[in-house]
Specification:
The chain has a domain at 38-93. The longest helix has 13 residues, at 80-92. It has helices spanning 50-57, 80-92, and strands at residues 38-40, 46-48. The two termini are 18 Å apart. The protein is an alpha+beta fold and 99 residues long. A two-stranded antiparallel ribbon has the order 1-2. A hairpin with a 5-residue loop joins strand 1 (38-40) and strand 2. The relative contact order is 0.09. One of its GO terms (molecular function) is GTPase activity. Keywords: GTP-binding, Nucleotide-binding. Pfam families: GBP. Residues 64-99 form the GB1/RHD3-type G domain. InterPro entries: G_GB1_RHD3_dom, Guanylate-bd_N, P-loop_NTPase.
Length: 99
């Protein structure tokens, strides 16, 4: 049986079966992934992409939930990916004592 986050199906479960369904009223379920909400400009300043942020925060699945934005910045090879991966592992294993 799969125990890793990457082995989960599209609904977050560990089932080996996948089901394809959709209706005309509903948008197709998209694979989860990062959405860039800050744009880095040539002068090294940042601009908020309000359209992208609204698309996330006003979606039906997220609208009534608490949301936390995490930003990690820093120099080359200083642990940014490690920190983000660590937070994701914690989030996916909150029920487990030995995460």
């Amino acid at each position: 049986m799969a125990k890793n986050r990457r082995d989960r199906n599209s609904w977050g479960g560990f089932s080996e079966k996948t089901y394809e369904w959709s209706s005309e009223e509903e948008e197709p379920v998209k694979k989860a992934g990062p959405v860039q909400v800050l744009i880095v400009k040539d002068d090294h300043s940042f601009e908020l992409d309000e359209t992208a942020l609204n698309r996330i925060l006003l979606s039906e699945a997220v609208r009534d939930k608490e949301v936390v934005a995490v930003s990690v910045a820093g120099a080359f090879r200083k642990g940014k990916s490690f920190l983000m991966d660590f937070m994701l592992r914690y989030m996916y294993n909150q029920e487990s004592v030995d995460w």
